[in-house]
Write a sequence for this structure.
């Protein structure tokens, strides 16, 4: 049995997620879309906090909200004039998008709802300590992730170089 | 009332659907990228929730999310670099207009 | 008999064809002419030797103890074996009719070779272009025609039949730069080819059921040990008939197979011999040089049809129907051609129609021949007439050639009154006319009289009919004679030499043929050529033929001929308005006759409108648009489909995502349905 | 391997290819082409003499000069060679036409590459005729087809790309059917429990002894096989590649294609379809008799109204090749002999036609008979050649066409039922129609007054053209004058032992 406060917090988070993500994809102003995305990301972070994954929540805020959204905003400012509305959607495209997403919603939603084990409560877990996270990240034993960590770092490096190369102005 | 696992999955599903809708409908490549982020985010939530649900004592799902966030960051950075480059060439970032590399 | 001479008879003209054809253009004209003529002369002498040997040597090869003439195969080489029994052989069959034809062909051919030396050059002695080619083709024709008459089997005959057709094509189209000659040659070839189709099918039918091509087998099957006897008694006929009746499918489309075969074979004969309705090529064939007309289209090739029927006569005897068809076709053609000949302007056309008419006489004669009546008199008469007709018709044609050569035109309107200018031609032409009109004692009288006697024996109706035709013959020939040589005085156009008799090379053949036309009637044919080899007379002397005449028939026909000549004399001897009056009295009839009863127009309609317009063109259209169109259509459909599929691969990432998504959802849904 | 004579039919062309690869100028190319084609003619004559000697010595095997070399063991694919009279006739035909074709393309552009493809094509042809292994045959068949695309597409005239594409696609379509049926035959090539084989002789024996290809399968495989080869044999309604393809192809290619390649179709129909599936051939013949009967008359009628020389000839090929398939379907010794004779005859005659048309076209730059006339006077040699070719085509005795057609007609007439009779008579009618279009063409093209004054200055054939033409004319005349030699050469193939394999007698 959850406390009322917890439920209220949940409701706020869930509503933020849903509303902001809907707005993010429907608004015609691209900068607003980025802002709604930011809210969605924050709400997600809040969800992580609520589930006691504090480190994850922090990463979410730092990387997503702090990094990616800023990137988005910069690129939007670079590529579009403020106040521009994107063109209205072609009805064919809207129909495609709606059918696709609604179909997905119905099928996935039905399969979620029809699973009775998903109606069970979420077990309580404790917040993993920073120590634990660090060891898991740095170890090579079973259930530890040094190799992916290194792979990610190489990937990020490649991504940085790639980004620089791609975005570099062609001299000719 | 109890917050069952379903209550966590449904917002994530809705977020994913929004992402799909946005990806399919938006012309602006940045908007498409935003939709993509939404989808990734929804997946992240699922990872975490299922981690808690299935293996409460362990950290697989959380680390998956962690890595996914990192990948998302990398992917976004690269994509934005490309978009800006495209913009430089064609002054447009609508996905329909970028056809030079077709065929 | 040793095969050497027969081989040379065939080989010499063939060699000459090859030599003149391949090397002719390197030779002088004169050399080529002399070479061709000499070789033909040699061939003629050899043919005479052969024929005389056959008829008079009394060798047991050729005649048996009872005085019956036999068929003798001198040599017979396998040429092409279809099956063990169906083998085309190239051979040399000597019997009365082939011996007779050997003489006719080589004589006329030699005359024509000689004559052409003069004819094929103009008044200044300049040779025609292609003179050597002309001699080469003449040699080819002689070879083919000789091969045809000595054929030992029906397929050999067909082979040479085609070859004479081809050489006739080449010779009619000799002046190949002249469009009319080209189309005439084409017409001749195609019409006879069409007839040959019938001949071919007839051969196929006949050979399939009898299992042989050989004439000797056709005519003597069932008579054991008498393979070489040119003789079919009625028991043999019965034998073949039973044999055919007992083979599979003896009845085809309502007629007996034998009837079909014989009628189809006769169709081939109709084509070559220009019987109605396949006669249309012969008048046009006069586009060829006149010596060619004399050789091919008067004396030799056109009687091939008669020869064919005569050759298979024992078989025809088994089918009354076929013989009746021959009679009717012949009689109609004879009358038709005689009518048309009465109004033509072009002298060669008159002669051409007269040829058609005379060949039809021979056909009728064969058609009415029955062994019961005078030992098959009709058969003998037909062969007799073939012989005499070849002589006097060649004579007439050569005279016409001399006239044309002198005047430079084919129409009698440009001639008139030539008797004083060209006395030799005049006399010889007159002899030819008397012969064809059937005036005693010229050759035509005897042979025509035999024919009429034979017809009289078979049917009074056809007798009257044919007598009328004989009268018409006398009339149109003398009409022609008077219009050429009398009518009015000849006016030489300004700047031209007066016409005169030609070189000796041209007049000599005329004289020789005229002499032959005078005496040929006295040859005792009844003892030489009969349908079964039995001689008709006990003993022969110079007047045998006179003695054997049926004088009642002879008197009537003589009277008819003389009446016709008198009529012609009245109408045409002096310039007078009678012919014009006649014409205006019967304008419709005159028109029809003049336009040859519109047969050519009918044929033009059939070939151009129906065959080309209604069959070939639609087929070509169908091919281009429907068949080819459907193939192109398949390509088009494939291309369309490819384009449609290419559209899916548009590069539109959002569409890809959607499709992917729908696919995933469907898979998911299916999985869900299956699991739940 | 190299002790077998037949291998050299493939080796010599391959050596020629190598020779072309190192040739520096057109003289060398010509030298190689002429030397090679003479060698091939010599080789085929040698094989012929050896063959006759062996037969005379009493060797009664179905195929002589046998040789087997495995080249893909898992599927039992071998290079099996062997020839009988029919194959030898075809080999002689091919080598004569390659010889004449080399001379006919004396002045072609880019001769080195042209001859390379041409010889590659002829490698395929020779390979096809010497092989008795279905798979290898099929391989050579494809080798013969593919170069055609380039030869027409690159060296052709007119709508060459379209025609090349059409020709190749239609023939490929045919060979798709063919491959299916060959694979089908392979999987039924031996009774249960025995090793499968591609070898025609083994399959034929198995079929005869054990009925290993059941009737149902035969009904399925035979039509595919027949149609597959029939496309190449220009069977109605799959003939439309022929007019377009021939019209656009360069001279030597037309010659080789009409002269030899189309024979692959007839040969295949006979050697594979009839030989291996006799029952189906017997039962289903009526379908194809109708189609080929239509071909015969239809092609002839179409030719009557064409105005392009090559189209006329292409449609006449449809008619004549239709006759080949028609005769094959009659399934009796005489008709089959006639079919092979017709292949020989048509091959030589059409090659002659196309050679002459190419030469005339090379001078007048038009093939429209309405624009030409009186060429006989200007080009007597070519004119006479054309007349001879025409006479051969309309079946003048003494030339090859007559012999072949008469053999076919006599053979076809052995069937007494109404159906066969009617179709035989219909086929006979083609001789008249042939005369019509041949004489029409000859009349318009060669006779009459000279229509185009520019034509008056044309020069007659040069020595290489004469050589090419005379070779073909002599061959046509040789068949026409001495048919018994060829007939007996071919007929032996249908001697009772082998005929039994066809399922008759």
């Amino acid at each position: 049995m959850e406390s009322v406060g917890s439920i209220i917090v949940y409701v706020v988070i869930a509503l933020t997620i849903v509303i902001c993500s809907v707005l993010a994809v429907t608004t015609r102003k691209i900068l607003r879309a980025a802002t709604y995305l930011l809210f969605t990301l924050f709400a997600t972070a809040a969800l992580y906090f609520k589930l006691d994954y504090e480190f994850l929540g922090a990463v979410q805020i730092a990387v997503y909200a702090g990094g990616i959204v800023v990137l988005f905003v910069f690129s939007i400012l670079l590529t579009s004039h403020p106040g521009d509305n994107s063109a209205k959607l072609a009805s064919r495209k809207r129909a495609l998008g709606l059918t696709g997403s609604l179909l997905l919603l119905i099928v996935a939603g039905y399969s979620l709802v029809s699973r009775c084990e998903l109606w069970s409560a979420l077990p309580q877990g404790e917040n993993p300590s920073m120590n634990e996270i660090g060891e898991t990240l740095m170890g090579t034993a079973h259930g530890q992730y040094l190799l992916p960590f290194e792979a990610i770092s190489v990937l990020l490096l490649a991504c940085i170089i790639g980004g620089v190369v791609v975005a570099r102005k062609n001299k000719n | 009332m109890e917050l069952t696992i379903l209550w966590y999955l449904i917002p994530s599903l809705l977020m994913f659907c929004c992402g799909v809708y946005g990806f399919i409908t938006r012309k602006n490549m940045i908007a498409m990228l935003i939709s993509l982020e939404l989808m990734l985010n929804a997946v992240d939530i699922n990872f975490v929730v299922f981690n808690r649900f299935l293996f409460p004592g362990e950290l697989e799902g959380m680390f998956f999310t962690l890595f996914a966030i990192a990948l998302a960051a990398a992917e976004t950075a690269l994509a934005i670099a490309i978009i800006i480059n495209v913009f430089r060439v064609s002054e447009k970032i609508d996905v329909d207009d970028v056809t030079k590399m077709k065929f | 008999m040793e095969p050497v001479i027969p081989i040379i008879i065939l080989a010499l003209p063939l060699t000459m064809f090859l030599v003149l054809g391949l090397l002719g253009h390197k030779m002088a004209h004169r050399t080529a002419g002399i070479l061709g003529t000499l070789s033909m002369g040699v061939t003629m002498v050899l043919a005479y030797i052969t024929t005389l040997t056959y008829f008079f040597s009394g060798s047991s090869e050729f005649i048996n103890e009872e005085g019956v003439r036999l068929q003798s195969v001198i040599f017979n080489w396998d040429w092409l074996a279809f099956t063990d029994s169906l083998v085309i052989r190239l051979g040399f069959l000597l019997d009365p009719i082939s011996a007779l034809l050997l003489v006719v062909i080589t004589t006329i051919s030699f005359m024509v070779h000689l004559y052409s030396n003069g004819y094929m050059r103009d008044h200044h002695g300049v040779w025609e272009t292609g003179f050597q080619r002309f001699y080469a083709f003449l040699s080819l024709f002689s070879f083919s025609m000789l091969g045809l008459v000595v054929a030992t089997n029906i397929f050999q005959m067909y082979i040479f039949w085609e070859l004479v057709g081809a050489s006739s094509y080449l010779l009619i189209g000799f002046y190949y730069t002249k469009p009319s000659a080209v189309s005439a040659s084409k017409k001749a070839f195609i019409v006879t080819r069409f007839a040959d189709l019938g001949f071919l099918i007839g051969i196929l039918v006949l050979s399939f059921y009898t299992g042989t091509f050989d004439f000797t087998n056709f005519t003597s099957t069932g008579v054991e040990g008498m393979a070489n006897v040119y003789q079919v008694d009625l028991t043999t006929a019965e034998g073949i008939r039973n044999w055919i009746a007992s083979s599979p499918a003896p009845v085809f489309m309502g007629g007996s197979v034998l009837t079909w075969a014989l009628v189809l074979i006769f169709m081939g004969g109709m084509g070559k011999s220009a019987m109605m309705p396949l006669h249309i090529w012969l008048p046009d064939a006069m586009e060829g040089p006149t010596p060619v007309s004399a050789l091919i289209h008067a004396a030799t090739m056109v009687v091939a049809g008669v020869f064919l029927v005569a050759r298979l006569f024992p078989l025809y005897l088994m089918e009354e129907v076929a013989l009746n068809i021959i009679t009717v076709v012949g009689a109609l053609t004879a009358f038709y051609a005689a009518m048309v000949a009465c109004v033509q302007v072009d002298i060669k056309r008159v002669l051409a129609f007269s040829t058609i008419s005379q060949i039809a006489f021979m056909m009728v004669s064969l058609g009415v021949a029955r062994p019961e009546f005078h030992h098959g008199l009709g058969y003998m008469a037909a062969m007799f007439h073939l012989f005499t007709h070849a002589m006097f018709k060649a004579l007439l044609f050569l005279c016409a050639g001399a006239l044309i050569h002198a005047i430079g035109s084919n129409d009698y309107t440009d001639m008139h009154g030539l008797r004083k200018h060209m006395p030799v031609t005049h006399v010889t032409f007159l002899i030819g006319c008397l012969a064809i009109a059937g005036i005693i004692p010229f050759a035509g009288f005897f042979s025509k009289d035999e024919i009429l006697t034979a017809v009289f024996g078979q049917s009074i109706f056809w007798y009257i009919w044919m007598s009328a035709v004989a009268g018409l013959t006398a009339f149109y020939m003398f009409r022609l004679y008077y219009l050429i040589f009398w009518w009015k005085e000849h006016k030489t156009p300004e700047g031209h030499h007066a016409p005169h008799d030609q070189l000796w090379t041209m007049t000599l053949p005329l004289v020789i043929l005229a002499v032959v036309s005078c005496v040929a009637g006295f040859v005792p044919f009844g003892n030489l050529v009969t349908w079964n080899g039995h001689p008709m007379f006990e003993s022969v002397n110079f007047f045998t033929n006179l003695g054997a005449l049926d004088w009642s028939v002879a008197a009537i026909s003589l009277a008819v001929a003389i009446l016709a000549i008198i009529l012609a004399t009245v109408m045409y001897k002096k310039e007078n308005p009678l012919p014009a009056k006649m014409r205006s009295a019967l304008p419709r009839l005159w028109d029809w006759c003049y336009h040859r009863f519109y047969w050519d127009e009918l044929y033009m309609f059939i070939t151009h409108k129906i065959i080309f317009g209604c069959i070939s063109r639609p087929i070509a259209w169908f091919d281009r648009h429907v068949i080819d169109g459907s193939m192109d259509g398949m390509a088009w459909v494939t291309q369309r489909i490819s384009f449609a599929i290419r559209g899916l691969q548009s590069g539109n990432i959002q569409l890809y995502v959607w499709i992917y998504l729908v696919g995933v959802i469907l898979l998911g849904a299916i999985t869900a349905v299956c699991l739940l | 391997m190299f002790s077998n004579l037949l291998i050299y039919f493939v080796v010599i062309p391959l050596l020629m290819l190598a020779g072309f690869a190192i040739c520096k100028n057109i003289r060398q190319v010509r030298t190689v082409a002429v030397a090679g084609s003479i060698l091939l003619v010599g080789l085929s004559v040698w094989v012929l003499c050896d063959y006759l000697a062996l037969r005379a010595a009493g060797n009664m095997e179905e195929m002589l000069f046998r040789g087997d070399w495995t080249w893909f063991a898992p599927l039992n694919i071998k290079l099996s060679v062997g020839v009988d009279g029919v194959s030898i006739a075809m080999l002689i035909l091919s080598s004569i036409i390659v010889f004449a074709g080399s001379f006919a393309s004396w002045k072609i552009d880019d001769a080195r590459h042209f001859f390379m493809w041409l010889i590659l094509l002829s490698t395929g042809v020779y390979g096809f005729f010497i092989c008795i292994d279905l798979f290898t045959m099929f391989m050579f068949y494809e080798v013969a087809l593919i170069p055609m695309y380039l030869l027409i597409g690159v060296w052709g005239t007119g709508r060459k790309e379209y025609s090349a594409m059409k020709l190749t696609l239609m023939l490929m379509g045919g060979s798709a059917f063919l491959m299916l049926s060959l694979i089908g035959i392979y999987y039924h090539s031996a009774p249960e429990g025995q090793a499968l084989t591609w070898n025609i002789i083994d399959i034929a024996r198995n079929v005869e002894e054990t009925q290993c290809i059941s009737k149902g399968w035969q009904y399925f495989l035979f039509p595919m096989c027949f149609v597959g080869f029939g496309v190449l044999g220009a069977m109605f309604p799959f003939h439309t590649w022929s007019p377009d393809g021939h019209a656009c192809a360069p001279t030597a290619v037309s010659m080789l294609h009409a002269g030899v390649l189309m024979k692959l179709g007839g040969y295949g129909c006979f050697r594979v379809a009839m030989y291996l599936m006799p029952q189906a051939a017997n039962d289903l013949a009526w379908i194809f008799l109708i189609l080929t009967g239509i071909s015969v008359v239809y092609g002839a009628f179409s030719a009557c109204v064409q105005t392009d020389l090559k189209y006329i000839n292409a449609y006449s090929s449809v008619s004549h090749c239709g006759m080949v398939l028609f005769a094959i379907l009659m399934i009796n010794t005489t008709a089959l002999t006639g079919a092979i004779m017709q292949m020989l005859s048509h091959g030589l005659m059409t090659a002659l036609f196309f050679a002459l048309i190419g030469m005339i076209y090379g001078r007048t730059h038009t093939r429209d008979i309405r624009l030409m006339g009186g060429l006989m006077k200007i080009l007597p040699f070519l004119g006479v050649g054309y007349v001879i070719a025409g006479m051969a085509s309309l079946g003048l005795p003494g030339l090859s066409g007559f012999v072949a057609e008469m053999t076919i007609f006599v053979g076809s007439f052995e069937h007494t039922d109404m159906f066969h009779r009617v179709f035989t008579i219909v086929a006979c009618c083609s001789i008249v129609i042939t005369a019509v279009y041949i004489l029409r063409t000859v009349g318009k093209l060669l006779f009459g007054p000279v229509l185009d004054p520019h034509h008056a200055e044309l020069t007659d054939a040069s020595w290489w053209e004469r050589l090419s033409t005379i070779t073909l004319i002599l061959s046509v005349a040789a068949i026409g004058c001495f048919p018994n030699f060829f007939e007996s050469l071919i007929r032996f193939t249908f001697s009772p032992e082998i005929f039994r394999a066809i399922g008759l007698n």
In short: Chain D has 20 helices and two strands.
